[in-house]
């Protein structure tokens, strides 16, 4: 495993339940979250040394990452102008990762929201 992937995995391990609070009622952010793993991401590993602080290391991880904003907008079903702000929000809360994955707590939120919607659709009271 490369140093880059090792740092990504370390960041994933630091996910906390409270990370999802800012997007719990944000349908647009949730749509981008769902779309993120489905969009092609290209990256070049940084050539600079890994910084010491978590925040600097987070920026270091993202420094060589590129994605197609148009594809992301289409996949998420949102306007292209909203892609960057939502990506910034999800990155800032460490809910998406530069390897194209989402945090486990984000996945849990999406699963819970889906279950809730399905129950409502079926008319279940449980």
What is the topological layout?
Layout: H1 3-13, H2 27-35, E1 41-43, H3 54-62, E2 65-67, H4 69-76, H5 83-92, H6 104-122
Antiparallel strand pairs: 1-2
Structure keywords:
mainly alpha; two-stranded antiparallel ribbon
Summarize the amount of helix as a percent range. Answer: 40-55%
The count of domains is 1
With helices defined by DSSP (H or I, 4 residues minimum), what is the helix count?
6
Rounded radius of gyration (Å) = 16 Å
Uncertain segments: none
Describe the model.
This protein has helices spanning 3-13, 27-35, 54-62, 69-76, 83-92, 104-122; strands spanning 41-43, 65-67. With 126 residues, the chain is mainly alpha-helical. The protein has a two-stranded antiparallel sheet. The mean pLDDT is 93.
Summarize the structure.
With 126 residues, the chain is mostly helical.
